[in-house]
């Protein structure tokens, strides 16, 4: 089957949804291709909370957060999100192709003629004026021959993979939360919680590479969202390694739950309520673009003439690629940049004329990606990519030829405070 659209987006995670909404609202006929049977990515099947990071006011990210997060929590209501995100796309008349995998592309002289996909109805070909890769892993860009980097410069190791989960049955009088490496809390029995985690990792009560069990509020006093499981030295692009990681990490969920049940007052009766349906991958490919964002750019709060995301803000959150700890330092919080901008050039891949990148696979270093990979910033990138794609399509020009000032004017008109 053959399809023709103005804009085709691969990946219906936070960045892809934001891109699709913006492109459609700007007047384009949009297709959104998703490999899973549900939209939302880390807002649904990925089961990631809280929704971290911040950007300037007026973005689609704020709209999405309001629809999927309870008023008293930054963690999504995942069941609500499954419905709300689908409704948002449906109301904008976006054609969503679920359970459809991008398998290849026909590229001539740097121009994508069409991309190939395979779904329940068989092989499909998608033509478009502009394509957007919002797969997280840069799958479409690589299918088109784009260059990429992976992992840190020294050894190509990426951040560990994990699965988040929710526990229930906590004594409502127990208020324990643990959000980061310096969130020190004295338990009712006199022990300090982070110290307990570190000691339990060393003596085998917790997995060896799990030395902090982060606990986030869900808005329900008897529940916590848990961010703790960790498997290092995994190639997230190898399906066999992902399966072995599933076995390991889901076993860690059981071990971590036993630790909390036996060691933390008020957690004696907890059970696992739910967990992610797919492995949580923090880092894989970073597509090389016309500009490569660096940690120095972020730490200095750099702005650009072609900024299309403004005042992005989140720490350089590098979960230890080579050992225990949810930070490179086991005892200190990661450094936090000044609010920074993301330039249009960072979402334009080198060598391809009619494609843009959105989400964590945009052009940046290992260190920089650790900040802009979080969902609020990814959604802002997606919105900017959707706007650029639609504006380029309506003018019958390639994205690289589009004046970034037009994108900025459009986003400002839409209420974004650039």
Structure in words:
With 418 residues, this protein is an alpha/beta fold. The protein folds into two domains: 2-152 and 282-321 and 335-413, FAD/NAD(P)-binding domain; 165-275. 28% of the residues lie in helices and 19% in strands. It has helices at residues 14-25, 60-68, 78-91, 139-143, 193-202, 239-263, 295-299, 366-372, 375-395, 404-413, and strands at 2-10, 30-33, 95-97, 101-108, 111-119, 122-133, 148-150, 165-168, 214-216, 223-227, 271-275, 285-287, 307-312, 340-343, 355-357. Strands 1, 2, 3, 4, 5, 6 and 15 form a seven-stranded mixed sheet that branches.
Shape: globular
Tell me how many strands there are. 15
Q: Compute the separation of the termini in Å.
A: 41 Å
> What fraction strand?
15-25%
Q: Considering DSSP H and I runs of 4 or more, what fraction of the residues is helical? A: 25-40%
- According to CATH, the homologous superfamily of the largest domain is FAD/NAD(P)-binding domain
Number of helices: 10
CATH architecture descriptor name of the largest domain:
3-Layer(bba) Sandwich
Structural class: alpha/beta
Nearest-integer average pLDDT: 96
Sheet of most strands? 7 strands, mixed
Number of self-contained structural domains: 2
Along the chain, the helix and strand elements come as EHEHHEEEEHEEHEEHEEHEEEHHH
Quote the CATH topology of the largest domain: FAD/NAD(P)-binding domain
CATH class of the largest domain: Alpha Beta
User: What ranges have pLDDT less than 50 throughout 5 or more consecutive residues?
Assistant: none
């Amino acid at each position: 089957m053959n399809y023709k659209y103005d804009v085709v987006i691969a990946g219906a995670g936070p960045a892809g949804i934001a891109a699709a909404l913006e492109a459609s609202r700007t007047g384009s006929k949009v297709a959104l291709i998703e490999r899973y049977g549900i939209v939302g990515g880390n807002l649904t099947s990925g089961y990631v909370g809280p929704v971290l990071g911040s950007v300037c006011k007026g973005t689609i990210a704020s709209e999405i957060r309001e629809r999927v997060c309870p008023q008293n929590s930054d963690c999504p209501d995942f069941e609500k999100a499954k419905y709300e995100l689908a409704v948002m796309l449906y109301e904008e008349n976006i054609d969503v192709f679920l359970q459809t995998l991008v398998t290849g592309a026909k590229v001539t002289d740097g121009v994508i003629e069409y991309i190939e996909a395979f779904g329940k109805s068989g092989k499909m070909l998608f033509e478009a004026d502009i394509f957007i890769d919002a797969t997280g892993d840069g799958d479409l860009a690589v299918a088109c021959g784009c260059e990429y980097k992976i992992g840190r410069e020294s050894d190509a190791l990426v951040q560990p993979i994990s699965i988040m989960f929710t526990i229930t049955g906590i004594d409502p009088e127990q208020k324990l939360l643990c959000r980061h490496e310096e969130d020190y809390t004295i338990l009712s029995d006199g022990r300090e919680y982070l110290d307990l985690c570190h000691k339990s990792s060393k003596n085998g009560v917790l997995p060896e590479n799990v030395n902090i069990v982060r606990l986030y509020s869900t808005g329900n006093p008897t529940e916590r969202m848990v961010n703790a499981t960790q498997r290092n030295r995994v190639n997230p692009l190898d399906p066999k390694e992902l399966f072995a990681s599933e076995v390991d990490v889901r076993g860690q969920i059981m071990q971590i739950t036993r630790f909390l049940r036996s060691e933390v007052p008020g957690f004696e009766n907890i059970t696992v309520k739910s967990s992610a349906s797919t492995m949580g991958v923090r880092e894989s490919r970073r597509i090389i673009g016309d500009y490569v964002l660096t940690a120095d750019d972020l730490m200095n709060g750099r702005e650009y003439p072609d900024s299309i995301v403004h005042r992005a803000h989140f720490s350089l959150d590098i979960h230890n690629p080579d050992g225990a700890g949810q930070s490179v330092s086991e005892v200190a919080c990661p450094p936090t940049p000044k609010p920074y901008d993301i330039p249009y050039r960072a979402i334009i891949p080198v060598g391809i004329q009619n494609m843009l990148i959105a989400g964590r696979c945009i052009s940046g270093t290992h260190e920089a990606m650790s900040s802009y990979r979080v969902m609020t910033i990814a959604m802002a990138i997606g919105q900017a990519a959707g706007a650029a794609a639609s504006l380029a399509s309506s003018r019958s020009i390639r994205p690289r030829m589009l004046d970034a000032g037009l994108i900025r004017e459009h986003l400002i008109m839409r209420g974004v405070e650039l």
